[in-house]
UniProtKB/TrEMBL annotation:
<comment type="function">
    <text>Catalyzes the oxidation of 5,10-methylenetetrahydrofolate to 5,10-methenyltetrahydrofolate and then the hydrolysis of 5,10-methenyltetrahydrofolate to 10-formyltetrahydrofolate.</text>
</comment>
<dbReference type="GO" id="GO:0004488">
    <property type="term" value="F:methylenetetrahydrofolate dehydrogenase (NADP+) activity"/>
</dbReference>
<dbReference type="InterPro" id="IPR000672">
    <property type="entry name" value="THF_DH/CycHdrlase"/>
</dbReference>
<dbReference type="GO" id="GO:0035999">
    <property type="term" value="P:tetrahydrofolate interconversion"/>
</dbReference>
<keyword id="KW-0560">Oxidoreductase</keyword>
<keyword id="KW-0554">One-carbon metabolism</keyword>
<protein>
    <recommendedName>
        <fullName>Bifunctional protein FolD</fullName>
        <ecNumber>1.5.1.5</ecNumber>
        <ecNumber>3.5.4.9</ecNumber>
    </recommendedName>
</protein>
<keyword id="KW-0378">Hydrolase</keyword>
<feature type="binding site">
    <location>
        <begin position="163"/>
        <end position="165"/>
    </location>
    <ligand>
        <name>NADP(+)</name>
    </ligand>
</feature>
<keyword id="KW-0368">Histidine biosynthesis</keyword>
<comment type="subunit">
    <text>Homodimer.</text>
</comment>
<keyword id="KW-0028">Amino-acid biosynthesis</keyword>
<dbReference type="GO" id="GO:0006164">
    <property type="term" value="P:purine nucleotide biosynthetic process"/>
</dbReference>
<dbReference type="GO" id="GO:0009086">
    <property type="term" value="P:methionine biosynthetic process"/>
</dbReference>
<dbReference type="Pfam" id="PF00763">
    <property type="entry name" value="THF_DHG_CYH"/>
</dbReference>
<dbReference type="Pfam" id="PF02882">
    <property type="entry name" value="THF_DHG_CYH_C"/>
</dbReference>
<keyword id="KW-0521">NADP</keyword>
Length: 282
């Protein structure tokens, strides 16, 4: 019979309208919500994402400024660029991959936690773990929102997350735990990964390996949420981490493209609006 295909673009449209209304209210109060995006200049995927943020953010009333990070930037140079970007901005986003000379952990500490709309600063990660979230990473927040939109009863269900990154797997674990699911986080060293995944009534995937999760990983009727993005030059299109054939087994399924991606963008816009509503600017 096949899965119910979740229309992420439709969900994102509703979120975008709500974001636009919040942005208009801020502007009416004399506040111009502003996002600064620092992007590695030599990475085409990061550049494409930055351009999409400019387009989506501007449409919803944000001012979006981009700052290109030189390939050879050192820590002192990065810190200078970051502080300049933070000036007058409510939200700051540092896109990955970082230039080779920068330590990702150090970068996470340097971003002002009150402007950390990616939710990666230890203060914001800690608040989420304590059940008092301020800024939740946009992709994790998008997956959570999409799951809630299905109307599936979540309390007591078994969830499996494949991937343990700081911006998807770990924060999503906290969000699902707060919904009273029993959550397992899997990774590259998980034994019998397909077998563990098949136990899930909710399966979320964010591992960065194109179409790795095949139908054998999916419990019949499960909600399958694909947060992967992999560009295939040969095919000239993006691919998710879940093979499309898995939709024949699942009960609910997010496609790539058109699933988690558009919702993620609107969640990032919403995080900027949260920061602006808090009135944090210099």
């Amino acid at each position: 019979m096949g899965a119910e295909i979740i229309d992420g673009k439709k969900i994102a449209g509703g979120l975008g309208e709500a974001n636009a209304a919040r942005s208009e209210a801020l502007r009416g109060a004399g506040i111009e919500p502003t996002l600064a995006v620092l992007t590695p200049g030599d990475d085409p995927n990061a550049g494409a994402y930055a351009r999409s943020l400019v387009k989506a953010g501007t449409k919803r009333g944000l001012v979006v400024r981009t700052v290109e990070l030189p390939a050879g930037v050192d820590p002192a140079g990065f810190e200078r660029l970051l502080k300049e970007a933070e000036t007058g901005a409510h939200g700051v986003l540092v896109l990955r991959p970082l230039p080779a000379g920068l330590d990702p952990d150090a970068v996470d500490f340097l971003v002002d936690p009150d402007r950390d709309v990616d939710g990666v600063h230890p203060v914001n990660a800690g608040l989420l773990a304590l059940g008092r979230p301020r800024f939740v990473p946009a992709t994790a927040r998008a997956v959570h929102h999409i799951l809630k939109s299905t109307g599936v009863e979540l309390v007591g269900k078994r969830a499996v997350i494949i991937g343990r990154s700081n911006i998807v797997g770990k924060p999503l674990f906290q969000l699902l735990l707060a919904e009273h699911l029993t959550v397992t986080v899997c990774h590259s060293r998980t034994r019998d990964l397909p077998g563990v995944a098949r136990e899930a009534e909710v399966l979320a995937v964010a591992i960065g390996r194109a179409e790795m999760v095949t139908p054998e990983y999916v419990k019949p009727g499960a909600v399958v949420l694909d947060a992967g993005y992999n560009w295939n030059d040969g095919l000239g299109r993006e691919q998710g981490d879940v093979h499309p054939d898995a939709a024949e087994v699942a009960g609910w399924f997010t496609p790539v493209p058109g699933g988690v991606g558009p919702v993620t963008t609107q969640m990032l816009v919403a995080n900027v609006l949260i920061a602006a509503e808090r009135g944090k600017t210099r």
